[in-house]
Specification:
The strands form two sheets. This protein has a nine-stranded antiparallel beta sheet with strand order 2-5-6-7-1-8-11-10-9. The chain starts with 11 loop residues before the first strand and ends with a helix. A hairpin with a 4-residue loop joins β9 and β10. α2 packs antiparallel against α4. The longest helix has 21 residues. By secondary structure, the protein is of the alpha+beta class.
Length: 264
């Protein structure tokens, strides 16, 4: 696979890849140690992910605490998490797809070597982009930077004395039961991904940004196939191409030339 150069000033703030599988038993100490050694070259820090999941029951909402094994890079921008029903790889410092792909393959190979799961139920790849541009005077200016399909409300005639203050939307391509992409978009202030989260992110000054959040996914039809690293990577390559193609269709040449291609 040839490595393509990313935009030097790319707006990607988070890439998350989730490979869902049937719920598996808790990892043994032996498996955890083997996975830590396996990922040590990329994510050597064992920092568990913990939180509370909320489930609706007949008697109300039930809160269930969880702790999942997670291995984190030394700069704490990238992590591999082994949930009971998924392998999750996420990074706040995205450079080249091929680099992230290698880590995903390493995580899948490790899981299947030391504590194999029964199959794959879904593969998802999410790109969260915070598009920031210089000298944005009003939200209507986004017409110059993103495709008309995303900036439609900005072209609506404004009522007297009432300027456009916000807009957002969700577009679904394909089928939620097979494969497709979900695009969440809109004009916002601040951050789409909080700088105070578990992982570190390069943080620009807060301000207006345009969200382009692309979640591409594949779901097997019929039976649940084996989780094989090579097959999973082929699916992931297809999702990456779909997400990149969508993004290119949603921005303008002005954004490419005056922002994304500018060296930082």
């Amino acid at each position: 696979m040839s490595e393509r150069r990313a935009y030097p000033n790319a707006p990607v703030v988070l890439v998350a890849i989730e490979i869902r599988h049937p719920v598996a038993e808790e990892l043994s100490k032996r498996s955890l140690m083997a996975l830590k050694r396996h990922l040590a070259s990329r994510c050597p820090l064992a920092i568990p992910a913990s939180g509370v999941s909320i489930t609706a029951t007949a008697s109300g909402m039930q809160q269930v605490p969880y702790t999942w094994p997670r291995y984190v890079s030394r700069d704490k921008t990238t992590a591999v998490t082994f949930r009971d029903g998924a392998i999750v790889v996420e990074t706040m410092r995205y450079g080249q797809y091929e680099t992230l792909r290698d880590l995903v393959q390493m995580a899948v190979e490790g899981r299947q070597q030391f504590a194999p799961v029964d199959g794959v139920e879904r593969i998802g790849m999410r790109y969260v982009n915070e598009v920031r541009v210089p000298e944005l005077r009003s939200l209507a200016d986004w017409l110059e930077w993103v495709a008309p399909s995303l900036s439609g409300p900005a072209s609506i005639a404004e009522p007297d004395g009432q300027g456009l203050s916000a807009w957002q939307g969700v577009t679904v391509f394909g089928s939620q039961d097979a494969s497709g992409s979900i695009v969440r978009h809109g004009a916002f202030e601040g951050y789409a991904v909080s700088p105070s989260g578990d992982l570190n992110r390069p943080t620009p000054p807060p301000g207006p940004f345009f969200l382009v959040d692309i979640d591409s996914y594949w779901v097997p039809e019929g039976e649940t196939p084996d989780l094989k690293p090579d097959n999973a990577m082929t699916r992931l390559d297809d999702l990456n191409l779909a997400a990149k193609g969508l993004f290119e269709g949603l921005i303008t040449d002005r954004l490419r030339n005056e922002v994304l291609r500018v060296e930082r």
